[in-house]
Specification:
The protein has helices spanning about 5-50, 60-70, 85-110, 115-150, 155-165, 170-180, and strands at about 75, 80-85. The chain is mainly alpha-helical.
Length: about 190
């Protein structure tokens, strides 16, 4: 039997579906715009530094490689306690740990619903997630700072690198500012010898 409430239910469902699709379309447009807005300065800086594969700034994961590769200096963590003479090795290490941790979390999600064991697995997954976030922040801080130092040496680069980790718009603005400048020459310090 045909009722008026069925028509309203279908109308509400249709309007709700249109609103959800519009929200996804807007979110997708914002994501693409943010990606392009970040790729442009990365590409410019890679070209200025003479990187052969500057076009990787437009490719997912490749853009992260470009961010590691832009500076002409070794990649150091913890004041040189962890040292990568070739910056691409720091990128590979970063990707391996990040993806390895994500795979562990994914595998853990398979076992998360087993009684008793599942609680331990969930705790382990949360700890891995936290460790991954800390690892990403530790790796990205010198990445941002080295880029900023390469194009605009300033005592505020430490603060800007930290802000770039927590406020993505700061990273994008700083990358645009850096891309508008010419790189400065890196002078190797004696503690690397």
């Amino acid at each position: 039997m045909y009722t008026q409430s069925t028509d309203y239910d279908a109308l509400y469902a249709g309007v709700f579906a249109i609103i959800i699709l519009a929200m996804y379309a807007i979110l997708f447009a914002i994501m693409i715009t943010a990606y392009v807005v970040q790729a442009i300065p990365l590409y410019k800086m890679a070209k200025k530094m003479g990187r052969q594969h500057a076009w990787l700034a437009w490719i997912p994961v490749g853009n992260m490689y470009i961010m590691y590769a832009i500076p002409n200096k070794p990649f150091d963590l913890f004041k040189g306690k962890i040292h990568f003479e070739e910056r691409y090795k720091a990128f590979i290490w970063s990707i391996a740990v990040t993806w390895g941790g994500a795979i562990l979390v994914w595998i853990g999600s398979i076992f998360a619903y087993i009684p008793l064991i599942g609680i331990l697995v969930l705790i382990g997954m949360y700890l891995i997630d936290i460790a991954l976030y800390v690892f990403i922040f530790i790796m990205h801080y010198p990445m941002y700072k080295d880029i900023y130092d390469t194009f605009m040496p300033d005592k505020n680069n430490v603060a800007m690198a930290v802000l770039s980790l927590f406020v993505p718009i700061v990273a994008i603005v700083m990358l645009w500012i850096a891309a508008s400048k010419e790189p400065v020459q890196y002078v190797e310090q004696s503690n690397y010898n």
